Amino acid sequence: MHKRCKWCEKDDLYKNYHDNEWGVICKDDDMLFEYLILESMQAGLSWHIVLKKREAMREAFDGFDAKILANYDDEKVNSLMQNDKILKNRLKLKSLSANAKAFLKVKSEFGSFYEYIWRFVNHKQIINNNDDICDIPAKTALSDTIARDLKKRGFKFLGSISVYAYLQAIGVIDDHLNYCFKRQNGKMQSI
Fold it and tell me: What EC number(s) are associated with this protein in UniProt (predicted)?
């Protein structure tokens, strides 16, 4: 039996996310966008709630296709507000279009969102050394900097705390605890 980071022991949904996604370096721009949208939807909620609604949101949000989401309008937002399977917050749903447009602009400017986000750390993963979940910060100077830059570029619902969680999710920051089997496997894999 694997010893995992304590936060993910709640159920199989959390364990699967921890074991197969969280902290794995993600190079796929479509997945980077999906994680970005999920983090923006999570603001003020638990990540577990987001994971439980993820598949419904993937279906409702056209597979997290940024080109489609960029064209969402008030009519689409009103339609999404009727969907009981997803997270329903009008401002967050309205931000889908703004975030998609900003994402596509960043991709155009930098060649990929992966290149944009990894330039903040000189393309080197940050591997933290923590024994207890209480030692993991909610935000850092790095997440402050990236959140400011994202806001300047038109992104919404992505403050420093959400950005730090995003950096953990996509593998820029490895916050697997020292006793976790994901840490003990050595180098993180990428997707």
Answer: 3.2.2.20
Other CB atoms within 10 Å distance of the CB of residue 99: 25
Distance CA(27)–CA(68), nearest Å, equals 21
What is the number of other CB atoms lying within 10 angstroms of the CB of residue 41?
A: 24
Residues with Cβ within 8 Å of residue 31, at least 6 apart in sequence: 170, 191
Instruction: Give residue limits of the domains in the chain.
Output: 6-184
Instruction: Convert 100-111 to b/e letters by CB count within 10 Å (16 or more is b).
Output: bbbbbebbeeee
Fold annotation for 6-184: Endonuclease III; domain 1 (1.10.340)
Residue the block writes with tokens 């949904």: 13
Strand-pair category, 126-127 with 173-174: parallel
Query: Active-site residue among 7, 21, 47, 179?
Result: 47
Quick: pLDDT tens for 59-108. 999 999 999 999 999 999 999 999 999 999 999 999 999 999 999 999 99
**Catalytic residue among 14, 22, 35, 39, which?**
39
- pLDDT value, residue 185: 53
